[in-house]
Every structure is written in structure tokens, then in C-alpha cells.
Amino acid sequence: METTHSAPLTATEIAHLWTSFQNDTMALCGIKYFLAHVDDHSTRELLEYALELSVRHVQKVKEILTKEKYPIPQGFTEQDVNLEAPRLFTDALYIHYITNMGNFGLTSYGTALAMVSREDILDYYATALAETTELAKRGTYLSIEKGIYIRPPIIPAPDQIDFVKDQSFLTGFFGERRPLLGVEIGDIVYNAKRNGLGLAIIQGFSQVARNKEVRKYFERGRDISKKHLKVFSTFLEENYLSQGAINLMAEVTDSTVPPFSDKLMMFHIAALSASGIGQYGISLSTSPRHDLGVLYSRLSTELLHYSEDGANMMINHGWMEQPPQSADRKKLSK
Questions:
Q1: Of 155, 157, 56, 37, which Cα lies nearest the Cα of 97?
Q2: Looking at the structure, do residues 251 and 310 belong to the same domain, yes or no?
Q3: CA 154 to CA 143: how far, in whole Å?
Q4: Residues 117 and 233 in one domain
Q5: Can you give the CATH number for the domain in which 122 is found?
Q6: Is residue 245 located within the same domain as residue 312?
Q7: What domain of life is recorded for the organism (predicted)?
Q8: Torsion region of 130: left, alpha or beta (phi above 0 gives left; psi -120 to 50 gives alpha)
């Protein structure tokens, strides 16, 4: 398709490009550090592919913003990573992490693709989405190959189709609760897996953070992740279903030497929290049972409070880069 005019970037397109730059420059720091401490050849290949994608994405965003004469964000640089720091995570956690990073990319790039309109931006996000799909697939295949993939529960096939007969289908607090739906099981398992991984990451960060306030914040986040993981696991257990997720704390070493800046680690946890809130919202919308809806609302509120406290800390320390925003017309009119 050929355009007859050069359309300026919309607010949405700038916002997504800016966010993509932040996420990919952060990923570059993490993956480079992982590559400095990896033993398994197949895991190294997965990390190298992820690194290749992030390098390409950062370069493309730079090209677009430079052409538009838009300031290149600072994001994260070599100042935010210490490649000489001892290993903090095992190879197994790298696989879980990269797979989750791929799943995170599927959501963020898919959302961007649905909201942008300029041809070059559409092409960029369509390509990024395809590449990230491949990354998620490779991560999943490798976790299966290494025997660390935990399959979600299996449910029996019905003899025939049926229809919901009464409102007990929605019951969650009073009366006899119906068994979980397949979609509800899927959301619970996915959220449990995310918390199992998040628990390990934030535990590692709590061991190496330089600032005492940041360490305390990470310890609080670790406890929240542990509680959320237990809540989801209990739901599956009460329905006589396999867990589908595990606590990955065993994949964290005893290192206390920081491989990342406190700024990067705070941003990382903020991104995970924001993603978790979004996923809980999706889960709420697809779970008809009342008790699950209330549960996701409660967990989301807890994460929102945690995220707000983290944002305040980042602002106080001068770690929060200003996102793109509209002009303050009232101020300009004074």
C-alpha cells in the first residue's frame, strides 16, 4: 500500500514505541547478563535469539524516532548491568523467564498492532509480533525438552453438548459451587505460573538490591507473589486438579552481588506488576463464577497499591523517565 502523504506519529504510536524501547533496552541488559552465566548449549541458543530480537527492535525504534525528530529515550544502558557479577539464576529459570518474556511480548505487541495505523508502525509491530511468537514457541519447546514444563490440568470430554440450566452456574459464595470451567482453569494456571516465576525473580532482586528501601519493597513483593501463588494453587487443589505451576525459588542462587542497578530492577518489577494487573483483569472478564471475580478484583487492588508505592519510590529517587504526554494547554495559556 502506498500513501500519498506523510502522517505524523499519533499519541498512541509514540507511546507504544517509547514503551517498547524501555522494555527492550531493559531486556538487553538482562539477557547479556544471562549469557555471561549460562552452561547449557540449547539455553544459550534461546538467549541469543532473544538478544537478537531485542537488538533489532531497539534499532528499529531508534530509526523511527530519529526520522520523526523525536528524542531517543534513555531507557537502560551498560551502566545498569554488571556482567561480572556472579550468577544469580539457574539455566532453568532463564528458560522460564524467556518464555514468559515472549508471552508478555505477544500481549504488548498485539495490543500495539491493534491501536496503530501508520504503515511503517503497523509493519514494525506485525513483524515484532511474529518474531515474539517464535520466541515463545522456542521457549515452550525447550522447557518441554528439558522436562521443566508443567502441563496444565486435563479435563474429561463430555458425551454430548449441553446448556446451562440455572443461575447456580454463577454461584461462588453460597450453595454448592460448580466445578471450574476450562477457561477458568487456564487463567488460574497461567496466573499461578507467572507468580511462581515472579516470586523467584523478586527474591533474587531482594538479595542484591543496594538500597535498603528497595530491598524492603522487593521483600514485600515477594510475599505478595507467594500469597497469590498459594491462592491459585488452593483453587486447583480444592477442585482435585493438578497444580500446573511451581515455586521457582530453588532456581535462585545465594549471590548478594548486584548484577543490575536498583533503577532497572524497580522498573522490571513495575512492568511485571502492571502486566499482572492486566492479566487479572482479563481473567476476571472470562470467569463467570462470582467468587473468582471477587478474587481477581481483590488481588488486582493489592497489586495496584504495591505498584503505586513503587512508582512513588522511583520518582523520589529520580528513576522514572517521563513518558510521552500531551501539552498542558492551561499552563501554556497563562
A1: 37
A2: yes
A3: 19
A4: no
A5: 1.20.1260.10
A6: yes
A7: Bacteria
A8: alpha
Nearest CA among 323, 326, 300 for reference residue 311: 323
Average pLDDT over residues 125-152: 96
CB of 173 closer than 8 Å to CB of 222: no
Q: Give a yes or no: residue 119 inside a domain.
A: yes
Q: Which amino acid is at 255?
A: S
Looking at the structure of the chain, the number of domains it has is 2
Q: pLDDT tens digit string along 78-115?
A: 999 999 999 999 999 999 999 999 999 999 999 999 99
Cell digits of residue 330: 492551561
- What separation in angstroms does the CA of 167 have from each of 67, 176, 183, 258? 57, 11, 18, 54
Range 165-184 average pLDDT: 78
Residue 59 lies in a domain: yes
Torsion sign (Cα): 142, 148, 153, 159: positive
Cβ pair 184, 289 in contact under 8 A: yes
- Measured CA to CA, the distance from residue 54 to residue 128 in angstroms comes to 10
Residue 29 sits in the same domain as residue 124: yes
Please, which residues have CB within 8 angstroms of residue 325's CB and are 6 or more apart in sequence?
none
* CA 78-87-259 angle, 5° bins: 30
Categorize the per-residue pLDDT at 3 as very low, low, confident or very high, splitting at 50, 70 and 90: low
Residue 22 structural domain:
11-75+86-145
Residues 219, 126 within the same domain: no
Tell me what pLDDT residue 173 has. 59
Q: Are residues 56 and 135 in the same domain?
A: yes
Q: In 3-state terms, what secondary structure has residue 333? A: coil
Q: Where are the alpha helices (DSSP H) in 175-261?
A: 182-208, 212-238
Claim to verify: residue 223 and residue 125 sit in the same structural domain: no
Percent share of the chain, pLDDT over 70: 97
